[in-house]
């Protein structure tokens, strides 16, 4: 494994790797170790391009007989709004394609926020209640946006604790346009876990790759805790594990 550096920045453990494949494999091995220790683990899962390598690696471990997902439960960070689950750009569709359909997880034990809820506030409250009743995530997987967002918690004047509906920033819309036929098709809203749910996880795994993430990574690790860089709140979490490549570490 092309691990170039592994060190600590306060409570945050940072691994810098020579490739996206290497960082993804290392993050997957971290998660796999927790799964083996606790077969009924609660996983907090993320979407987007960053965690795809993790899901590929976990799938390979499952196919090799090294992992069992049958007792795993999961909660996803977010979902576009309004977007039905069968839409091929929805995050439910993404999770089915990239992980759930490839392993022996019971989909009844997987939860993604509804992108079509008529009563969004009720959906958000029920989502938080279900995660709290499960005891919070044992491992929460995160990516990071170029503006420092985690989930769809965008830069703001304050941190929002509860799951909520959020208006996406123009930067996020532009960044996600590559997944759609055009920028106009990108939903302008999302339902996202708030910081309370994210910070309730026992361990956090954050992955980032590419120079476009370098400023966000640097702000997260070396700036103060500031809601204008939402990921900076992770400085207050006791167990954060960051897996990045050299370009994402450029400003460290």
SSE order: EEHEHEEHEHEEHEHEHE
In CATH terms, what is the architecture? Answer: 3-Layer(aba) Sandwich
Q: Name the strands of the widest sheet in spatial order.
A: 1-2-11-10-7-3-4-6
Give the C-alpha Rg. 17 Å
Uncertain residue segments: none
- Span of the ends, CA to CA: 21 Å
Instruction: Determine the structural class based on helices, strands and strand pairing.
Output: alpha/beta
> What is the approximate shape?
globular
How is the topology of this model organized?
Elements: E1 3-9, E2 12-17, H1 20-37, E3 42-45, H2 52-63, E4 73-76, E5 78-81, H3 91-98, E6 110-111, H4 120-133, E7 139-142, E8 164-167, H5 170-176, E9 189-192, H6 195-199, E10 203-208, H7 214-222, E11 240-245
Helix pairs in contact: 1-2
Description of the molecule:
Helix 1 crosses helix 2. The chain has helices spanning 20-37, 52-63, 91-98, 120-133, 170-176, 195-199, 214-222, and strands at residues 3-9, 12-17, 42-45, 73-76, 78-81, 110-111, 139-142, 164-167, 189-192, 203-208, 240-245. With 252 residues, it is α/β, with parallel strands linked by helices. 43% of the residues are buried. The two termini are 21 Å apart. Strands 1-2-11-10-7-3-4-6 form an eight-stranded mixed sheet, sandwiched between helices. A three-stranded antiparallel sheet has the order 5-9-8. Helix content is 29%, strand content 20%. Helix 2 links the parallel strand 3 and strand 4 (73-76). The model has no long low-confidence stretch (mean pLDDT 95).
């Amino acid at each position: 494994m092309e691990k170039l550096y592994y060190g600590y920045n306060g409570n945050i453990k940072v691994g810098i790797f020579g490739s996206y494949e290497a960082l993804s494999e290392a993050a997957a091995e971290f998660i796999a170790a927790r799964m083996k220790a606790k077969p009924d683990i609660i996983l907090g899962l993320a979407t987007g391009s960053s965690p795809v390598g993790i899901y590929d690696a976990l799938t390979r471990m499952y196919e090799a007989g090294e992992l069992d997902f049958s007792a795993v439960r999961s909660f996803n960070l977010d979902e576009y709004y309004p977007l039905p689950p069968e839409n091929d750009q929805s995050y439910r569709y993404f999770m089915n394609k990239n992980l759930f359909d490839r392993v022996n997880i019971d989909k009844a034990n997987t939860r993604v926020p509804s992108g079509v809820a008529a009563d969004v506030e009720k959906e958000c409250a029920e989502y938080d209640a279900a995660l709290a009743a499960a005891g919070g995530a044992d491992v929460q997987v995160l990516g990071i946006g170029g503006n420092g967002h985690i989930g769809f918690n965008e830069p703001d004047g304050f941190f929002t604790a509860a799951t909520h509906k959020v208006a996406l920033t123009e930067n996020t819309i532009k960044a996600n346009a590559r997944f759609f036929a055009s920028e106009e098709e990108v939903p302008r809203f999302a339902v996202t876990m708030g910081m309370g749910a994210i910070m309730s996880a026992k361990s956090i795994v954050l992955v980032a790759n590419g120079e476009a993430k370098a400023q966000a990574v640097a702000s997260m690790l070396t700036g103060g805790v500031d809601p204008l860089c939402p990921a900076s709140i992770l400085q207050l979490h006791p167990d954060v594990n960051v897996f990045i490549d050299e370009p994402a570490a450029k400003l460290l």
